[in-house]
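To: structure desk
From: M.T.
Subject: fold request, one chain
Message: Could you run this one when you get a chance? Sequence is below, nothing fancy, just the single chain.
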Amino acid sequence: MCLIEEVGKRGMQVAALDLKAMRYHYDIRAALDALAARKAAARAKNSLSITADVERHGQKILEAGLEAIDKGSVARQIREDEAFHALFYDVSGNPFLRRTAEPHWRFLRRIMGEVLRHAEPPRSIWRQHQDILEAVVRGDEQQSERLAVEAHRQLAG
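Reply: Done. Structure tokens follow.
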């Protein structure tokens, strides 16, 4: 995954977007996000304090994401989307999930703005996020995992 490329003697330039590579990154993110959601749900099921923390932080992120839509801030929508997924990476109990997902986020941040501008309406993405959050808070591991994978399938096409 290269974000810059050499251009002969002229130096470096930002690499062109590669749609095939984008789909590969989304596939990996789908697997990582599904794992994180499932593990976060398992931990929430076994701990009222984790459940309360996930619900409180998740709702704040969802509200901020919707506010970003209202203000027309695509950059903030991307930041809040990343924060939403990072919440589950962090709550999953697996300290390697966030670090493993980061290279894919670096690549996908470049195209997320276009996805948010031209794919399905941004509010529907946040409704999907709401559904994932609710499944995690309920401790429903299978539903959390399934919803995370479905959300990526819709975005990656």
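Reply (cont.): The radius of gyration is 16 Å. Let me know if you need anything else for the meeting.
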